[in-house]
Amino acid sequence: MNRHETRELAMTSLYQSFLLDKDIKRILLENEKIGNDISPFLYTITIDASSNLDVYKERIDRVLKGDWTFERLGYIEQAILTIALCELDFETAQRQIVIDEAIVLAKKYCDDDTYKLINGVLDKL
Hints:
Largest sheet: none
CATH class: Mainly Alpha
Number of helices: 7
CATH topology: N-utilizing Substance Protein B Homolog, Chain A
Strand content: under 5%
Helix content: over 70%
Low-confidence stretches: none
Number of strands: 0
């Protein structure tokens, strides 16, 4: 699995975790694509991201405009931003690559203009 596919898997796993209020480790272990072998990169952008979620929520809330908050965003947007912010914190890739990958996921899974929100938030973090 390449990094883009891993990010997509992480995004769908975090989405499920948010939607079902289920532990991310359990979701990963139940995923047939992964089995018992969670790569270090996948571990970082799912389990580490989930562990730091409260900090990430605060940081994202600070850059959202108006009465928008992390909690008001859709679960997919929350998952994409969480993964990207975790990658920026852990420096898993160059900043522009992380932002570009988040935009690609937003264009694929979100409303037409959501990628602009994702780009704007990540650019300010």
